[in-house]
Automatic annotation (TrEMBL):
HAMAP family: MshB. This is 1D-myo-inositol 2-acetamido-2-deoxy-alpha-D-glucopyranoside deacetylase. InterPro entries: GlcNAc_PI_deacetylase-related, LmbE-like_dom_sf, Mycothiol_biosynthesis_MshB. Zn(2+) binds at residues 15, 18, 150. SUPFAM superfamilies: LmbE-like. Its EC number is 3.5.1.103. One of its GO terms (molecular function) is zinc ion binding. Belongs to the MshB deacetylase family. It comes from Micromonospora citrea.
Length: 305
């Protein structure tokens, strides 16, 4: 039996850097407010691009050592976010980065895309059994933008939730990362005349491979006080996110609003109290009967709550 804070959040991501880009401020916010934050990363990101010329030989087609390098980057990112509980699904290197959809790397025998669903979910169930998170965050059924490993992370997380529910310790709420259409439309308008326009060539927001109607958003986490932690975590992933990245360009224009606010839809559980025209929650634990501070409670087989 171990002793953990009353509020416990589990995040399931596909590759190192996904956690920082998509949910970094949320993770930093809950870590700073005393919740236990567990990050599960499904692959080492071996097929990622390398934006540091001196490290080009680490690429999959060369020494194939990028995955090991990215472990160190992820450790640094987690430190920046204040997250101390990080696991690789099934252990580091159990599942390999599948690369983008349709590439030959999808068929690698260790590719996460090829993973047996119940076996992979079983690894996540073991983490759930240990930590007993009340809230889980992952991607929607399209993996937010269609990457096979993101889609598989969604499948594994949701299957693990089903299996854990049979045993009675599934998270009460499951959220999927999202981006409101109103935010995307504002971004397209703002950057229309910019020389560093991330929306260049896109005429309508409907052309983007992601975007959620505002009415379907369940939670808006305002962690603007953690935007510096999120940026530091992103910079820790130097092989993947160069200093010239449009992500930093947007941050320079929108500042803490871009870095610090993250959105989610609610896939499982009851929506808690919210505000605004759509009743967006401002806390992923909204509506749950768990303490708001760092009070500690026993978890594990001998200490269920």
């Amino acid at each position: 039996m171990t002793t953990l804070p009353d509020r416990r959040l589990l995040l399931v991501h596909a590759h190192p850097d996904d956690e920082s880009i998509g949910t970094g401020s949320t993770m930093a916010h809950y870590a700073a407010t005393g919740a236990h934050v567990t990050l599960v990363t499904c692959t080492l990101g071996e097929e990622g691009e390398i934006h540091v010329p001196a490290l080009a030989q680490l690429a999959a087609a060369e020494a194939d050592q990028l995955g090991g390098w990215r472990i160190a980057e992820l450790n640094a990112a987690c430190a920046a976010l204040g997250v101390t509980d990080h696991r690789f699904l099934g252990g580091a290197g159990r599942y390999r980065d599948s690369g983008m959809m349709g590439l030959a790397t999808n068929d690698h025998p260790r590719a996460f895309w090829q993973a047996d669903l119940d076996e992979a979910a079983g690894h996540l169930v073991e983490i759930m059994r240990e930590v007993r998170p009340q809230v889980m965050v992952t991607y929607d059924d399209n993996g937010f933008y269609g990457h096979p490993d993101h889609i598989q992370a969604h499948r594994v997380a949701m299957r693990a939730h089903e299996l854990a529910a049979v045993e009675g310790f599934a998270p009460a709420k499951v959220y999927w990362t999202a981006m409101p259409l109103s935010v995307l439309e504002a971004g397209m308008t703002h950057f229309a005349e910019s020389s560093d326009n991330p929306f260049a060539g896109i005429g309508e927001v409907s052309e983007l491979p992601f975007g959620t109607p505002d009415a379907q958003i369940a939670a808006r986490i305002d962690a603007t006080d953690q935007h510096a932690a999120k940026e530091a975590a992103m910079r820790a992933h130097a092989t993947q996110i160069p200093d010239t990245s449009w992500l930093y360009s947007i941050a320079g224009n929108f500042g803490s609003e871009f870095m610090g606010v993250e959105y989610y839809t609610l896939a499982v559980g009851e929506k808690g109290p919210g505000s605004g025209p759509y009743g967006w929650e401002d806390d992923l634990f909204a509506g749950l009967d768990v303490a708001d501070g760092p009070d500690r409670s026993p978890v594990g087989a001998a200490g269920l709550r």
